[in-house]
Amino acid sequence: MAQTIPTLDWSRTDPGTPLPRKPSAGSGTCHGGLLVATGQVDAFLLMGAGPWDIAALVPIVEEAKGVFSDLTGQRRIDTGTALFAGPGLHDQLLNLAASAH
């Protein structure tokens, strides 16, 4: 039997008790990347992500003619940052990030 981590008790009725934090960026990550892939947003920057948050989005965004890299312009999923954008805008955002240092 599969186990959900963190364990969730759906029978709880106390609305004042906060829900447990998710261990990853989860659906927010997917949603942002898919918005870029479908052309609904121009760019999506993800910071503090794990490789598992980024890996599945790379082929989806690239198939939709988008571009992926970390903030140094490398095509790496292990640096904790991911920038998804259209080709021209992606380069502009990388230049902006480089000039901020």
List the helices and strands and how they pair.
Blueprint: H1 26-37, E1 43-47, H2 51-54, H3 57-63, E2 67-69, E3 81-85, H4 87-99
Antiparallel strand pairs: 1-3, 2-3
Helix pairs in contact: 1-3
Q: What labels would you give this structure?
A:
single chain; 101 residues; alpha+beta; three-stranded antiparallel β-sheet
Q: Per the principal axes of the C-alpha atoms, what is the gross shape?
A: globular
Q: State the separation between the terminal residues, measured CA to CA.
A: 49 Å
Largest sheet: 3 strands, antiparallel
Number of strands: 3
Unreliable spans are: none
Q: Class by helix and strand content? A: alpha+beta
Biggest β-sheet: strands ordered side by side in the sheet: 1-3-2
Order of helices and strands: HEHHEEH
What percentage of amino acids are in beta strands?
Answer: 5-15%
How helical, in percent, are the residues? 25-40%
> What is the mean pLDDT?
82
Structure description:
The protein has 101 residues and is α+β, with helices and mostly antiparallel strands. It has helices spanning 26-37, 51-54, 57-63, 87-99, and strands at 43-47, 67-69, 81-85. It has a 3-stranded antiparallel β-sheet with strand order 1-3-2, sandwiched between helices. The longest helix has 13 residues, at 87-99. The chain contains 4 helices and 3 strands; from the N terminus they run H-E-H-H-E-E-H.
Overview in brief:
It contains 4 helices and 3 strands; from the N terminus they run αβααββα.
